[in-house]
């Protein structure tokens, strides 16, 4: 059992074998804190959508754990689908374009669309996606993000449902990766 209390010093906990030998700097949000926040978000979303078709659209890969926990806390009918988006352009610099590698199979027109993101950083990903999805004529289009760094200069749309204000650190766990590792870590942490 790995103790993961908020802001506990990394030296207070045994090494976590999931971390590939990397040392924890700190746990930003532990399992209990995340679970309580997800319940809270689920209640907010339930109240916000009294009627109509609700489609929860998770943005892969980062949101896969958050979406699976969140939808179980929403007490109303809904459908779930996912988006896979990719920035493309020359070299490693984003062109600002977002291309959908996987497009939801369900139609978006006339439905409440809730786009679920793990973390909003620059906001570039969401900014492009919001335009792309708005073109499909949904009844409403809102964003739910577990973490928000509040540094997004590129995102015009408000993030309607926010879990936590994220510290300006590189975070892993609960879906968030570093070079594809650590997504399965059940708490959100920064590494040394
Ligand atoms: C990460 C994260 C968000 C996005 C946030 O995704 O999951 O989708 O970056 O950054 P932004 O606000 O600056 O656009 P990433 O591209 O690493 O893919 P992943 O979801 O597969 O981890």
Q: If you had to describe this structure to a student in words, what would you say it looks like?
A:
The structure is a single chain. The protein is an alpha/beta fold and 192 residues long. Helices cover 19% and strands 30% of the residues. It is built from 3 helices and 9 strands; from the N terminus they run E-H-E-H-E-E-E-H-E-E-E-E. The relative contact order is 0.19. Helix 1 (31-48) packs across helix 2 (64-71). It has helices at 31-48, 64-71, 124-134, and strands at residues 24-29, 54-60, 79-88, 97-102, 112-120, 140-148, 161-165, 171-172, 188-191. The strands form 2 sheets. The chain has a 6-stranded mixed beta sheet, with helices on both faces. It has a 3-stranded antiparallel beta sheet with strand order 1-9-8, covered by helices on one side. Helix 2 links the parallel strand 2 (54-60) and strand 3. The chain binds 1-O-pyrophosphono-5-O-phosphono-alpha-D-ribofuranose. Residues 59, 61-62, 117-125, 152, 177 line the site of 1-O-pyrophosphono-5-O-phosphono-alpha-D-ribofuranose.
């Amino acid at each position: 059992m790995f103790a993961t209390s908020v802001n506990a010093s990394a030296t207070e906990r045994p090494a976590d074998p999931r971390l590939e030998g990397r040392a924890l700097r700190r746990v930003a949000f532990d399992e209990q804190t995340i679970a309580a926040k997800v319940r809270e978000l689920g209640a907010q979303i339930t109240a916000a959508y009294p009627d109509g078709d609700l489609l929860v659209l998770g943005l892969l890969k980062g949101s896969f754990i958050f979406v699976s926990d969140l939808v179980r806390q929403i007490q109303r009918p809904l459908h779930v689908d996912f988006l896979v988006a990719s920035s493309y352009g020359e070299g490693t610099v984003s062109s600002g374009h977002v291309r959908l590698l996987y497009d939801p199979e369900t139609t978006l027109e006339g439905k409440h669309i809730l786009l679920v993101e793990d973390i909003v950083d620059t906001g570039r990903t969401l900014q492009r996606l919001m335009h792309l999805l708005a073109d499909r004529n949904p009844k409403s289009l809102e964003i739910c993000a577990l973490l928000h760094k509040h540094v997004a200069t590129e995102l015009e749309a408000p993030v309607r449902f926010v879990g936590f204000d994220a510290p300006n650190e590189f975070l892993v766990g609960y879906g968030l990766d570093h070079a594809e590792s650590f997504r399965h870590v059940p708490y959100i942490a920064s590494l040394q």
